[in-house]
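Course assignment 3, question 2. Fill in each field.
Student: A.L.
Task: Predict the tertiary structure for the chain below.
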Amino acid sequence: MVSTNGGTTLIENVKIVIYDNVLSKSVHLECKDCVKYLGVLIDFGLSWKVHIEHIVVKISRLVGIIAKLRHFVPRNILLRIYQSLILPYISYGLTAWGLASKSYLTKISVVSWCTGTQRE
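Answer field:
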């Protein structure tokens, strides 16, 4: 079913049927709002909002841990913890979602800068 809402077209309840020759049966595929593929959450409009919000949640937890450690651990160790725990979340799939809206990307930069480990 296709419905128009304020100039945008929404596709609802779309099912694609593919015939599988190996299993000799039909396979039904559904249209989803978001799909996780190789650890990257791809949404219907390729806005990357869902993926970036997921990253922000993951990073926020780790920033809390680093914030508690900063009183007991030297700065160079905090930097290594940042590079090993937070940086992989930011860099993985960056070529795909790195061109997302600036408002979404700002969320990641704000959270990652809360660690204070990258300032010199």
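Instructor remarks: Residues 34-113 form one domain. Confidence is low (pLDDT under 50) at residues 1-5.
Grade: pending
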